[in-house]
Amino acid sequence: MKNTIYALMALLLFTACAEQKDEHRYVIKVGENETEYLKDVEVCPKVHIRRNDATLVQKQGNQPVFKIEASSYSGFCYFNEDTQTQKAVVKPQFKIVRLSNEDITDVHFSYYLETAEGPTAYLGKKTYFAKVSVPVDVKEISYTAEAAELTVPKQGTYDLDVYFGLNADISELQFKK
């Protein structure tokens, strides 16, 4: 009886450990030539924040209201048994700063995840939308977006680079210059 209980406990412990996903949380910023990294490690997913698309200032009229910055991400990779494919889960993180004393609370923005290299079937850019409420009396908040799932090639798991940044509309692009 005692051996059965120990065997069940060991099995339970083993399954609990096997179910844990190795989640990475750090920043990799892309430099001018897209090769400069703050931390270059063999992890999956390998996500880079494009410096040109890392910051966005939203304005109302001519007055800047919010500054949104793509600050980091958290994520992990796993093997999906149902589809027999390797998947990457990415949760982009943003810092939102209030720039004015206006009573505006809602911040709407979009961001993208893009794979620019690798097998053709895995290439593409997908846009995601976010809405964040910033209380009037709060100057700065951090926001973690919902998890986005990407398919990773079987070979080259650690060679697939994913880029992410903020999308700007025409008026925001003019304001950035």
Under the CATH scheme, the architecture is Sandwich
Q: How would you characterize the largest beta sheet?
A: 6 strands, antiparallel
Secondary structure: helix percent: 10-25%
Terminus-to-terminus distance:
74 Å
The domain tally reads 1
Written as H for each helix and E for each strand, in order along the chain, the element string is: HEEEEEEEEEEEH
Number of helices: 2
Name the structural class: mainly beta
CATH class: Mainly Beta
CATH topology: Immunoglobulin-like
Q: Tell me the Rg in angstroms.
A: 20 Å
Number of strands: 11
Describe this entry's structure for a reader.
It contains two helices and eleven strands. The chain is mainly beta and 177 residues long. The protein has one domain (22-176): Immunoglobulin-like, CATH 2.60.40. Strands 1, 4, 5, 6, 9 and 10 form a six-stranded antiparallel β-sheet that branches. Strands 2-3-11-7-8 form a five-stranded mixed β-sheet, with no helix packed on it. A hairpin with a 4-residue loop joins strand 5 (63-80) and strand 6. It is elongated. It starts with a helix and ends with a helix. Residues 11-41 have low confidence and may be disordered.
